[in-house]
Fold this sequence. Notes:
Layout: E1 7-12, E2 17-31, E3 34-38, E4 45-49, E5 52-58, E6 63-68, E7 71-76, E8 79-84, E9 87-89
Parallel strand pairs: 1-8
Antiparallel strand pairs: 1-2, 2-3, 2-5, 4-7, 5-6, 6-9, 7-8
Amino acid sequence: MAEEKVLNLEVISPEKTVYSDKQISYVSAPSSSGIIGILPGHMPLISSLNSGDLRCFEKEGSEIHILISSGFIQVKNNNVLVLAEEAHLKEES
């Protein structure tokens, strides 16, 4: 049986790990050149991020919103790492 592809997402601020999940199907991020979408198998990428709404969709269908300030995103081998100056789950605001 073929293994289903998913993303491992970590969102980290200087204070804490804001979000970490290994069952993400899609990430939408506010990059400095516009909104970027990341699916499993995405090419390697490093980009700066603007302030905005980082959206991620968990494998079972839940949508998570994380408000971030400026930072960086790295995508490599289905691992997505977001380093933000400030970040919090939208429900916490």
